[in-house]
Amino acid sequence: MKQKGKTQSLLVALGGNALIRKGQVGTVEEQFENLKVPIRQIARLSRRFKILITHGNGPQVGNLLLQQECCSEVPRLPLEILVAQTQGQIGYMIESVLDSELMALGIQYQQFIVSLISYVVVDENDPAFLEPTKPIGPVLQEQTAMNAPYPVRKTPKGFRRVVVSPKPVTIVEKREIKKLIEQDFIVICCGGGGIPVVREGRSFCGVDAVIDKDLASSKLAEEVDVDIFLIATDEKGAAIHYGSAEQEFLREITVDQATEYLKEGQFPPGSMGPKVEAAIQFVQSGGKRAVITSIDSIEAAISGDAGTEIRPNP
Ligand code: ADP
Ligand code: MG
Question: How far is the CA of 131 from the centre of ligand 1 (A)?
Fold first, then answer.
């Protein structure tokens, strides 16, 4: 049975920490337990909004890459295939937790869920192919990082492996996704930023990269025309002077203010930078609301009581 009166759509982009929290090793049990926090809120919100869910895959795809390198008996899989694997594994986990939470609310028969393997087109001439910037996998000991046979960078969380991360150009399945949400399906898609592909004539060819999930989510939000774009992470929003004594979380900023802070370097690449950039892009493309908030304050942020909201310039 379709629910009447759901005119607004909401896209929630879940950060990697929705599955693996700081200090955890990331067992499957931990990931299922962690997911309950955002998914319970999304289940409740599905009574009022048409829902799209996207998710990151940084820790998971990096772990799969390490697993490839630990075993020489079977052929190694390239990154594009590993991204596809994470869409399957995380999509399954989100879907099953969501199903239980909808059941707990007694609305499981009104909400149908689909996890979609999604491709995202990138530009083969994107300069991002020249320099790895996207952190994936576990935090490495300094010694391991120094001797690693792959590129490594120091991030706010510690040393991590980095891979190239081209910008998303368009979501291949955008029409299908739009149709599904119009028919009230809850859609889980563009996992891990989507499987990166380049166009080769009329077909697509996968490339060795990981797209930033915030930028891919913003592109998706724009292309399927959602009303609210919410990015859920492990901080309560975007702060200026982050990590210093002057740290100040922002409640509401205009596109111009956000752009200025980005230029000042307040939001670093690979973490808060792409979230703010994604929010700016969505609002500039005509989106109504873009909010960055914590995993446990999704509902509060929708009500305007939490998070950092990026607003159009007056
Ligand atoms: P996610 O998995 O949700 O994408 P990221 O690690 O990519 O998470 O980005 C969130 C992180 O950004 C936070 O854990 C925080 O350490 C970091 N961060 C860097 N600069 C800022 C800032 N100015 N305000 C808030 N968080 C920041
Ligand atoms: Mg991230």
Answer: 21
